[in-house]
Every structure is written in structure tokens, then in C-alpha cells.
Amino acid sequence: GCELTASTKSYTFQVDKEDDSDHILALSVVCLTDGAKDECNVVEVVGRNHENQEIAVPVANLKLSCQPLLSLDNFKLQPPVTFRLAAGSGPVHLAGWHRIVPREYDFFEDDDFEDDDLSEEEEELAPIMPAKK
């Protein structure tokens, strides 16, 4: 996790460029902590899009009196990524997890895994129907 405040407005999570593993960073919770004022605190994620251009996306707008906490349900990001307090003075705490997956491991190239190994008892899911008004 990390904490964004008026004096520390950004935090960058990055991995060693020589590391050949795949890294996944997942953001779970963004919340105001002790000492927060009743003001809008906007947290942005700054990363790169598919064209390698920098892009900033707001992920949370917290206010002590109406929404002091936001669950992001393990919002997955690929490092390097910067978290920035775009508005407000915080403190805002961000929590999540980091997973490292070695690139040489590929589940689908495993010789022991074949389509025949799938359980014949798997149930077929019913189609999703539109809601009635």
C-alpha cells in the first residue's frame, strides 16, 4: 500500500527493467485516513495505453462526509504505474497486492493438460436474459 497526502501527491510502482517476469498490480481499496478534511479527494492512475502514450484516469473521488472508502475489487494494472492525488489534501491510503508470474511458465503448454482432462460433469450455463422492466 501507499499513502497520498498534500506533501506526497504521487507514488510510482515500478519493477526492475531487467526482470523478465510478468507483474500484476491489483488495487483493492482506496480510503481516507485519520486527519482527512471534508473535501473532494480525487485519485488518478497514470499509466500507458496500448500505443505507449501516458494516460491518467481518475479511479476514486472520496469525501469524508459521503464516501470515505471505495472498494475497487482488485482493479488490475500493469507496472509501471503512478498513483496521483489530483485534488484534495488527503491523506488517502491505497491498498492492493502484487503478483509475479515467471514468463517461462505457460499453463497451456503443459504436456499433462489436455482438453480430455476437463470434467464431463461440467454444467452448461443458462443464457443471460435481459431484465424485465
TrEMBL record:
- One Pfam family here: Nucleoplasmin
- Ranges that cross the membrane: none
Q: Please name the Gene3D superfamilies in this protein's record.
A: Nucleoplasmin core domain
- Record's subcellular location: Nucleus
Q: Which keywords describe this protein according to UniProt?
A: Nucleus
InterPro entries assigned: Nucleoplasmin, Nucleoplasmin_core_dom, Nucleoplasmin_core_dom_sf
**GO annotation, biological process:** chromatin remodeling
| Domain of life assignment | Eukaryota
**Can you list the GO cellular component terms from the UniProt entry?**
cytoplasm; nucleolus; nucleoplasm
In this chain the Nucleoplasmin core domain maps to 1-99
What GO molecular functions are on record for this protein?
chromatin binding; histone binding; RNA binding
Describe the family membership recorded for this protein in Swiss-Prot or TrEMBL. Belongs to the nucleoplasmin family.
Q: What is this protein called?
A: NPM3 protein
Task: Name the gene that codes for it.
Answer: Npm3
